[in-house]
Amino acid sequence: MTLSLDEVFTLARQALAGQGLAENQASAIARTITAAERDGCQSHGLFRVPFYVAALQNPGIDPAAEPVVSVDSSAVVHVDAGCGFCPLALERGLEHLVERAQALGIAAMAIHRSYNIAALWPEVEHLANAGLIAFAFTASNAYVAPAGGSKPLYGTNPMAFAWPRAQQPPLVFDQASSVSARGEIQLHQQAGQPLPGGWAIDVHGEATTDPASALAGAQLAFGGYKGASLALMIELLAGALIGDLFSFESSAQDVHNTGAPFGGEFLIAISPGRCAPGASNDAHLERAEALFTKILSQDGTRLPSDRRYQARVNHLANGIEIPAPLYEELQGLASE
Ligand code: NDP
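Above: inputs. Below: predicted complex with NDP.
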């Protein structure tokens, strides 16, 4: 069935509120879910609502958490999510990060004690729309084997990057450090489809294309040891550096196996005019456009985020398609 994006937002918000999330938390999550559906990223769209609901089983979670922002004259903004979900913590903190980065040239934001099952591009796109170059990192639960290993240790640990562009939406990429996001394996399982080769190993360390065996075993980092090193870096930045949990620690506290990662997110924002001596913001952006033009002059290329922006245009005009069983499940959650 077809839903407008307003209907996506209302369905998500009502389903989450119907399961006990306070209005502030439910609305922020629903905005993130609507952005995912708008941009054609189903694995973080309405499909995610039952995962947020399952996360409410965690004994430490606060479904009405109001994040607390700490900001001073230094370069690091802190947001204590108060054991609520990450989207509201981001909404509360991002404007402070923009202000600090514009004032100092570079600033960071550490989100603490949050449940984070969202994609990262909305926050870096927001920062780039404010004229900043942005990075975001978060650890998750232990799903990915270290290079050469066979047991889950790292999270699927995404990182996102955004670069502002004049006259156009920012260039953004947002990618897991595993070959695939875990949600993609769950979507294959729901659809009864085998996985592409190279995504995962089973509990015995053997390659598998069976989604259930992959979920029980370990996912693989993209690019072998190189992706594993990125996953390691993200554990250090979003875990050790800001005093939050590693993925294996998040898994250990997930006593009901809800799959909701608990811990931190780390963001860095850079004001472009401060980096090359004497260069204006416009000069940086113009140089980047020359590179993008070179890339696109080769057949078969596109820029990261092009697919998302095309999906955005289409879905804003035509709404999104949602499977009837998912719609009914979410309506059921809303009315319980
Ligand atoms: P994908 O592999 O689908 O895409 C990764 C990036 O590559 C996107 O920015 C995409 O742009 C870009 N891209 C894809 N194909 C091309 C191409 N041919 N040329 C240039 N760029 C290309 O994403 P993942 O499966 O790795 O991750 C999915 C999502 O899962 C992410 O949003 C991530 O934040 C989220 N995630 C969240 C976790 C959490 O714990 N919170 C854990 C792990 C993942 P485009 O969008 O335009 O296709």
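Residues 266 and 329 are 34 Å apart (CA to CA).
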